[in-house]
Amino acid sequence: MAGLCEGGNEPAGSLKAIVSGSDSGHVFHLHGYSFYVVGVTQLKEPTALSHIQQLDSRGSLVSRNLVSPVLKDTVTVPSNGVAVLRFKADNPGYWLLHDQHVSYWTNGFDVIFHVGRPSDVPPAPQDFPKCGSWIGPEFFLI
Ligand SMILES: [Cu+2]
């Protein structure tokens, strides 16, 4: 598994993301990448992010599979659970990590990963719609 390592030896451009759930399970999907699911666990009760970070820094949050982790673009995080994901952030852009359940879209469950510099992203095509230049279907105009 090239590009995967533990502790302070993160390879340049790699990203470790810890995704925590809530009282219900969540299905997170990442655009722009596939990621390695190196660990998933379910905690006994709702746990504050700061405590999750403490557990992780002590190495007692979840055991990691750095030998044969599964490669996915979607992961299920169990209720009161945590998933540790790793991927090499080598695709410049703004990439959405979001819960697949529509009802959570406005509840702060979405994350944007900004990878690279703005100059790394190709410019929009000349005819790309601008704000105010697009008119949606009739049902948006009601
Ligand atoms: Cu999506």
Write the layout of secondary structure elements.
Blueprint: E1 14-20, E2 26-30, E3 35-42, H1 49-57, E4 70-72, E5 74-77, E6 81-88, E7 93-99, E8 111-115, H2 138-141
Antiparallel strand pairs: 1-6, 2-5, 2-7, 3-4, 3-6, 7-8
Bound molecules: copper (II) ion.
Copper (II) ion binds next to loops.
Explain what you see:
- The structure is a single chain.
- Helices cover 9% and strands 33% of the residues.
- With 142 residues, it is mostly beta strands.
- The strands form 2 sheets. Strands 1-6-3-4 form a 4-stranded antiparallel β-sheet, with no helix packed on it. It has a 4-stranded antiparallel β-sheet with strand order 5-2-7-8, with no helix packed on it.
- The chain starts with 13 loop residues before the first strand and ends with a helix.
- It binds copper (II) ion (CU).
- The site of copper (II) ion has 3 residues, from loops.
- Copper (II) ion (CU) binds next to loops.
- InterPro entries: Cu-oxidase_C, Cu-oxidase_fam, Cupredoxin.
- State the order of secondary-structure elements, H for helix, E for strand: EEEHEEEEEH
Q: What's the arrangement of strands in the largest beta sheet? A: 1-6-3-4
Overall, the morphology is globular
Query: Would you count the extended β strands for me?
Result: 8
Mind describing the biggest β-sheet?
4 strands, antiparallel
Terminus-to-terminus distance? 53 Å
Number of helices: 2
Q: Uncertain runs with pLDDT below 50, 5 residues or more?
A: 1-10
Bound molecules: copper (II) ion
| Strand proportion | 25-35%
User: SS-based structural class?
Assistant: mainly beta
- Rg, alpha carbons: 18 Å
User: Which bin fits the share of residues in helices?
Assistant: under 10%
User: Mean pLDDT, as a whole number?
Assistant: 80
